[in-house]
């Protein structure tokens, strides 16, 4: 998890695991390119819920005005790139903190429901 976060803003991260096997410590470095290669299937799968949401809403991606990313993994440059390409180069809205977006919307919905 720490390496994933580091690779969101750096091109290389260290991975250290104390006593991984029979008391032997593990240490390695991983590049962002290698991380993206290892996770390529997972990254491609991130588009499936987006496509499903558009299909369920009977909307075309060209009718989307603003793309707001939610959740910590949306900080990963490869995910941002895939989404930007999916939406035909549309600039992603990165001004909203992805960790706070869901909580903010939940608070707004609670206020609406409570009158």
TrEMBL record:
<dbReference type="InterPro" id="IPR018181">
    <property type="entry name" value="Heat_shock_70_CS"/>
</dbReference>
<dbReference type="InterPro" id="IPR013126">
    <property type="entry name" value="Hsp_70_fam"/>
</dbReference>
<dbReference type="InterPro" id="IPR043129">
    <property type="entry name" value="ATPase_NBD"/>
</dbReference>
<keyword id="KW-0346">Stress response</keyword>
<dbReference type="GO" id="GO:0005524">
    <property type="term" value="F:ATP binding"/>
</dbReference>
<keyword id="KW-0067">ATP-binding</keyword>
<comment type="similarity">
    <text>Belongs to the heat shock protein 70 family.</text>
</comment>
<dbReference type="Pfam" id="PF00012">
    <property type="entry name" value="HSP70"/>
</dbReference>
<keyword id="KW-0547">Nucleotide-binding</keyword>
<protein>
    <recommendedName>
        <fullName>Heat shock protein 70</fullName>
    </recommendedName>
</protein>
<dbReference type="GO" id="GO:0140662">
    <property type="term" value="F:ATP-dependent protein folding chaperone"/>
</dbReference>
């Amino acid at each position: 998890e720490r390496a994933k976060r580091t690779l969101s803003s750096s091109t290389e991260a260290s991975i250290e695991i104390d006593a991984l096997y029979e008391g032997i410590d593990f240490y390695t470095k991983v590049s962002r390119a290698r991380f993206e290669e290892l996770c390529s299937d997972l990254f491609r799968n991130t588009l499936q819920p987006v496509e499903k949401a558009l299909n369920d809403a009977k909307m075309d991606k060209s009718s989307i005005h603003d793309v707001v990313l939610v959740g910590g993994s949306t900080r990963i440059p490869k995910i941002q790139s895939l989404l930007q390409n999916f939406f035909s180069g549309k600039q992603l809205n990165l001004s909203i903190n992805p960790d706070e977006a869901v909580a903010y919307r939940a608070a707004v919905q609670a206020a609406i429901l409570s009158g």
